[in-house]
Amino acid sequence: VQLVESGGGLVQPGGSLRLSCAASGFTFNNYSMSWVRQAPGKGREWVSGINSGGSSTYYADSVKGRFTISRDNDKSTLYLQMNTLKPDDTALYYCARGAVRSLRLMDYWGKGTLVTVSS
User: Fold this and answer.
1) How far apart are CA 94 and CA 33, in angstroms?
2) pLDDT at position 119, please?
């Protein structure tokens, strides 16, 4: 199983980024997926989840209305569109397999992609 995130970078407050997570080594469309972030000096925080078929999506209150999770099962890729970014969104963003919300049920994680929101 391999999960590889990309798309992070430095962006000004109010800007946008689109993260991608390329999955391999398993049948992607059989699993729920999530995005989880870890800000400097803090614990991991669940951000958003999506069910295996992509029909149901879930968001933390802190990102609801600004972030959109999606997936392309034909490409085995998970996405996170992040708009109206704030400095508090600065974190290492991970994709994880296996659950739409519970970190304890996520069994594989990528290495993360860094998002820095700063002017």
Assistant:
1) 11
2) 94
Tokens representing 48? Answer: 């958003």
Are 44 and 26 in contact, with CB atoms under 8 Å apart? no
Q: What share of the chain is helix, strand, coil (3-state, %, to 5)?
A: 10, 50, 45
pLDDT tens-digit readout, 27-55: 999 999 999 999 999 999 999 999 999 99
Please, are residues 6 and 44 in contact by the beta-carbon 8 Å criterion?
A: no
Please tell me the least confidently modeled range out of 29-33, 57-61, 96-100: 96-100
Strand order in the sheet with 77-82: 2-6, 17-24, 77-82, 67-72
